[in-house]
Specification:
By secondary structure, the protein is mainly alpha-helical. It has one domain (16-190). The protein has helices spanning 16-47, 50-81, 90-130, 143-152, 154-190. The longest helix has 41 residues, at 90-130. It starts with 15 loop residues before the first helix and ends in a 5-residue tail after the last helix.
């Protein structure tokens, strides 16, 4: 067990406080990702009306994306501060690259894909509401009515294409961050003593 005080470290070694913060930021982002990606979306999507689900997502996702990108950024900064580039071994270099990729994709979601997806979805909901749609429970119900709406309203069809494109891009960014955080968790697990 190290006797180095929390506020001090030797020879570039991370302090206990830095290690704690690194773990908190990584665990926070990882926990949010698991909950939002694999739990809450499925529960809400199968139990709420289409518009209620969309409204909650439009309020929840900006916070999720911004908090996730902040956690990713702080993880990268803490790791980089305690691992000078001239002293990096290949494993640490890979970790820096992984953390940088996570920051990049999280920022793309927070600043671009997430916002555009919410805006498109809001426009679609206005059209759906004007046609008496959007109050069905579960996202997969009443598909025929939405397909007919696409055929009868070219603007809605175009919005649906855009939504699919940006939603897929956002999901891909989220998946990349999930993979990066999984790699970071593995790195921490195999380097607990030196973190």
């Amino acid at each position: 067990m190290s006797t180095v005080p929390i506020a001090m470290a030797t020879n570039g070694e991370a302090t206990t406080l830095a290690k704690l913060l690194h773990l908190i930021f990584l665990a926070t982002f990882w926990g949010m990702q698991i909950w939002v990606t694999f739990v809450s979306g499925f529960i809400m999507g199968s139990n709420l009306t289409r518009h209620t689900f969309g409204f909650i997502q439009s309020k929840l996702f900006p916070s999720y994306f911004h908090l996730g990108s902040a956690c990713a950024f702080f993880n990268l900064m803490i790791f980089a501060i305690h691992h000078p580039s001239e002293q990096l071994n290949p494993e640490e270099t890979f970790q820096i690259i992984t953390l940088f990729i996570c920051v990049t994709f999280a920022a793309l979601n927070a600043q671009w894909f997430g916002q555009i997806t919410s805006e498109i979805m809001t426009d679609m909901h206005l059209i759906e509401r004007s046609c008496g749609l959007g109050q069905d429970i579960g996202l997969s119900t009443n598909r025929e009515a939405y397909n007919q709406l696409k055929e009868s309203k070219p603007k809605y069809k175009e919005l649906a294409k855009q939504l699919a494109m940006y939603h897929n891009a956002s999901s891909l960014c989220n998946l990349c961050c999930l993979i990066c955080n999984g790699i970071s968790l593995y790195y921490i697990a195999t380097n607990l003593s030196t973190l």
